[in-house]
Amino acid sequence: MSNSKQTDFMTAYNGCHDRFLRYCSSLAYGKMDVQDLVQDVLLTAYHNYEKIEKKEQLLHYLIRAARNRSISLWRKQKNQQELTEIHAERLADQGVSPETILDIQVLYRMLNKLPLKQKDALILFEINGFSMKEIAEIQHSNEGAVKTKISRGRKKLTALMSDKTSSPVSDLLETIQTITL
Amino acid sequence: MKSIDSSSLFEKAKQVPTELSKETVFEFIGTIPSLPAPANNWFQNFNLNSIIMTTTAITLVTSAVIYFTSFTGQENTPVLQNVPEVILKQTITDSIDKKEPIIKPIPQTVQLDDPQGEKAVQQQKKASLNTTSEKVAKVPKEEEETTTKIGSLIPTGNHLDAGKAVQFEAYSSVSKISLTGTQLRKLKSDLIKYVKADDLNRGRSNLIIVEFNRQKPKINHYTLNPSQIQRYEGLLKKYNIDYGPQRRIVVDKKYIMVGDFTEEGFSGSALGKAMDIQFKGYDKPDLFSNDKNSDIPSIKSDTLRLSRQISLSPIDEPKRTGGTIFQPYQPERDSPSIKGEYEMNFYQARKVSLLDKDGVKKKNILSRKDLKRLRRDIYSVLYKSNLIESKKADIRIGLNPNELTVNKDGISQNTDAKLREVFLKYSVALGTKMKLLMNNDFIMIGEFNENKFKGSVTGTINSKEAKSGVFMEDLKEISLFKFGSKSKKNDN
Questions:
Q1: By three-state DSSP, how is residue A162 classified?
Q2: For the segment B120-151, what is each residue's pLDDT rounded down to a tens digit?
Q3: CB-CB: which of B8, B9, B19 is closest to A21?
Q4: Measured between alpha carbons, how far is B385 from B379 in angstroms, rounded to an integer?
Q5: Which of B13, B83, B300 is nearest to A19 (CA)?
Q6: Is the ipTM of this complex over 0.95?
Q7: pTM
Q8: Which residues of chain A does CATH 1.10.10.10 include?
Q9: Is the model's pLDDT at B60 over the cut of 60?
Q10: A97-178 maps to which CATH number?
Q11: Which of B14, B17, B38 sits opposite A94 (nearest CB)?
Q12: For B235, which of A135, B173, B399, B400 is 20 to 30 Å away at the CA?
């Protein structure tokens, strides 16, 4: 029984992995170890798998669970520098170039400065490739609101990234410092 | 530094491999069955957000419950029953429409000392019309709020006085009411507070009528509910006021009367304006009572309304209603002269308002400094004109624009011109009734008209000197100086 459940779960999870992990990465960056977050969410999801009515929407369930978990259990288990180092190491192990790691970390750092809902919408739309309709379902919102959040998030992100502010520079320097490749 | 393009960064983030590989995650999923189910840590659901929202919701619900349950007391609110008419035979000066009283003006004493006293006068006799002056002690300031200056201030035992209660003895068997002035004032204050708190006021009127009978105690014709009865019972018990079939308390702005209002008259304690209060038709059975009386024919509501009347009127002439009970009477009398020498000090303001409340410029209103300078300049002119030998002499100048007079004598053209120059300098207004009185101690300039003075005065007036000097004729007409003339209400 448990084998079949496990198999079913793995089968269902197979299609969710990439988007789920990318979402957890951007959510957890600088705040917690993404592995802790993922394991917490998967453990809960596995044990509640029977209760999930629409199995095809496991991804939505995982994303909502990840967001809720990250809010309620957010704690700096390790300091930020350590977390960013771990993140960089893991990506480096995957064969990602340092420049790309740098860019991604800058992006995550900028995203962390956005309001939560805008950040969430932007990650789901830009990184995870969800449609506005899907994002509205995940966030229990409507498409118009999602559109507004994405639009505002983009504008704010652009402003943060512009050369008028010094924070991107200091962030870059900080990011470079953490990469000990 | 060039701005970083976020879209390219998003592309990179989209394409970069995940932090954890699929195999790593599957390995973990494989171990899940061996792992204990996540504990239902209900406390993990508590975060600041949930605590705040829960607390807010609980607070709102509790407040709503408390707020709405406080209205359940409304079922016990007093019911207005059978409100009789209140007839004001003669308008009381404190009524809302502020009509002039029809009664003759009541003589008013003007006392230099504080006229209010604490001691009540116990009386068992007929009204005495002889006036006696009495020295009274000061009333503590906190009690001044409950009393107002009353028209009749004859300090005799049998008159309603601002400071003294008057007792009216009864021969009935009900318990005697005997309250001092202090007690009456306090009772008035307490009653006003209680009635206001219970919302038993009769609109804007200050009148409070308490019917303190055992069958149906009422306040302002509202029947009291049991809790209110208990409250008012407690209040009146403090003053040893028991129930009585015709026991009533009538309170208005200028008086309080506590006692029995019978056909024979009032018996009890009273303070303030002398009033004649009669409750007509109150002793008939209540036609709206639960005890149905088949003998009483059904009467239209209009007639019912007329069957009960309260009449309130200030006392105008003596009333003897049988036995030894009567209402007090205040004749017009001479203001008591103050024996002995005295001094009156006036301090004109340093800065004066030149316009009255209607924006009209006041005449001969000078500051203290200007008055003193005016006096100095006038003395200078008169001294140089050889009209006075000393700059301390008593001077009376008639400010008739046609002819200035000094001590009732005409003056030369030269002196006239110089004086007019001085008056012009200080903006002194001339007039047929304008006069200037001065000596070394005071200066007074203004209009002397109809026993009133309007103008400016500063300095000290000695009564002995004023009575004997050139000022006597002008000052005696002004009651303020109490030189023995009849004093009238609202003088100055």
A1: coil
A2: 344 434 434 343 444 334 444 444 433 333 33
A3: B19
A4: 10
A5: B13
A6: no
A7: 0.35
A8: 97-178
A9: yes
A10: 1.10.10.10
A11: B17
A12: B173
